[in-house]
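Q: Give me the 3D complex with NDP.
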Amino acid sequence: MTVQTSFESRSPATGEFLARHRVDSSVAVDAAVRRARVAADWWAGLGFTDRRRRLLRWKHVLVRELDGIAELMHQETGKPVDDARLELVLAVDHLDWAAKHAGQVLGLRRVPSGLLGFNLAASVRYLPFGVVGVIGPWNYPVFTPMGSIGYALAAGNAVVFKPSEFATGVGVRLVETFAEAVHEQPALQAVTGFGDTGAALCRSAVDKIGFTGSTATGKRVMAACAQSLTPVLIEAGGKDAAIVAADADLGAAAEAIAFGAMGNAGQTCVGIERAYVVDAVFDRFIERVAAIADRIRVGAEPQAQLGPITMPAQVSVIRRHIEDAIARGGRAVVGGPESVRPPFVHPVVLVDVPEDSEAITEETFGPVLVVNRVRTLDEAVDRANSSRYGLGSAVFAGRRTATALAHRLHAGMTSVNGVQSFATVPSLPFGGTRESGFGRIHGADGLREFARPQAIARQRFRSPANLLSFARTARDMRVPMLLTRSLHKRG
Ligand code: NDP
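A: Here is the predicted complex, encoded as structure tokens.
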């Protein structure tokens, strides 16, 4: 059997050859992790201020190279250049936030020591794990991994990054820009290849894995990490729902939901795939959303609003979901099975789709929006929550009902009168529940995700009661018993 040592990256839109990349074996992955171990000691030793300086230098390089990276992302994934630019803008903002807030969130801080610990000074600090392995997807090849890479680095870890085989060039370029800003040690490295390279990273001596990708692969990653009890962060798939209430601004809701569903050709983990619209405004909503979907320009040319389906195998999944929905009684109000014209899929809006069809239960990952009619908002909430996924969600309603509705959704994130807006706020945690995974990137939770807490209780003076000692007497026990009985006697 011959071992594949390299692979080609090609444009999903035209098939044009772009570059050749290494397939890193487990030996190469282990070597990268060993180099990262040395870099991790140096990087952690820098402390928050010096790391912040270097991360902001990296940010500067990214901003300088923004157009070039966006162009590469466009070539490699097919997404429109402006979408790629926006992705970079958001990634830069997150890197900036992580760099500037790591010290405040993770640095040593005093905490109350409580009544029984009145003689103690209690403090907590968050230390880096060491080496973090980051496995990324192709759909947002900078923004998504940056949620792990930027926050893990800011927390003081070295990172070994395995980009998707469909976005390897972008991943490698990201690491090159880091090396330009930080020359001393390879605190960020890339290992490249297929799923086997990612699997090797899970089996290597990394101290944590930050995985973003499909739920199926997430389960394999977790199983591999279980062998060494390596902790994992899983950012997996979704089937996000939007709810539209009768008092919503219908024009704004249609505009946002159309973009949430079709943007990036629907290849968005927090893409809107289902919309539940109350009966009273259903027809008007459909009319508006259909008009927008009909106008979307699809193609490889620069003015296109939707590019190709990046991963060829996804095309048959999208086609199957559309066909299954229609076979079970759903109706296409925009497009239909004929919208699937590889490598492109033109917008599809389906209505009255049975709740047990694949277009409702499985991640479609294409520009396909299902809009179903509901009688009440309670029904909308029940249906939105009845998914095995729980990543993002959206609510469109008047001021009074919107936030209350948002609080009833079993999703990790909810946008109110907008879509995906939570992803743009660096201080908000990003992640899901159920089969969408667990753990968080972004915000203070995202920084803590890549750090281990160390608790310190320092004795300031000797306690008059010798409680944690074999020299303890019955008299020593009197005060804590008295305190407990008086302070905690009520429920
Ligand atoms: P995959 O699960 O196919 O791949 C994700 C990454 O895992 C790739 O780098 C892949 O490498 C690698 N990989 C594959 N097999 C293994 C393995 N056995 N062990 C370790 N790593 C492995 O996902 P996609 O790249 O197709 O990304 C799309 C998915 O990602 C969607 O489900 C989407 O919802 C989800 N996603 C979730 C996000 C979130 O934040 N929750 C954000 C963005 C996307 P290779 O590509 O080389 O096979």
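A quick observation: The chain has a mean pLDDT of 97.
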